[in-house]
């Protein structure tokens, strides 16, 4: 099933210049991470009241922590589990550069879903929009022949789980985070 979905999606490469252009924009290492970062940065400074700003700043903290936790977990998993990329094992059209790390789990999905979940826990509509962005990023990676669908699913699960871990860590670390946020406000960084 994993291979069949990959081959079907990758089989669309070259059939529509518009679809190829959209996927080329989505698959990259820059556009979506920058978008996610800008959303977290905007939340950091957004809020009509001090309470709203504090809650949004905590969303940004949880987002950054969940992305960091996701990256650390995937780094540890990649040292134990090595899965070749689809373009190594299958006859696919590579619509991206050749990554050299393990395909499983997909780091891009973990990052996207970690950020989306962090935002979704406080801002449902914005979080849903970020889920669509994260899913699109993952689909584009399958389309481009650099990930299997199961790589994306596993990465997404890790990202969601690490967002909840980050929420718990934030609660535990609140005695340190609170003063740091107050200091950031004092020096006009929050």
Structure write-up:
- 75% of the residues lie in helices and 0% in strands.
- With 190 residues, it is mainly α.
- The protein is elongated, with a radius of gyration of 18 Å.
- The chain starts with a helix and ends with a helix.
CA-based gyration radius: 18 Å
What average pLDDT do the residues reach?
93
- The dominant shape is elongated
Total helical elements: 8
Low-confidence stretches: none
Structural class determined from secondary elements: mainly alpha
Q: DSSP strand (E) fraction?
A: under 5%
Main beta sheet: strand number and arrangement?
none
Through-space gap between termini = 48 Å
The count of β-strands is 0
Please estimate the helix content: over 70%
SSE pattern, N- to C-terminal: HHHHHHHH
Give a brief outline of the structure.
With 190 residues, the chain is an all-alpha fold. It has helices at residues 2-10, 17-27, 31-45, 50-80, 86-89, 107-120, 124-143, 149-186.
Architecture blueprint of SSEs:
Layout: H1 2-10, H2 17-27, H3 31-45, H4 50-80, H5 86-89, H6 107-120, H7 124-143, H8 149-186
Helix pairs in contact: 2-7, 3-4, 3-6, 4-6, 4-8, 6-7, 6-8
Main attributes?
190 residues; 75% helix; mainly alpha; single chain; elongated
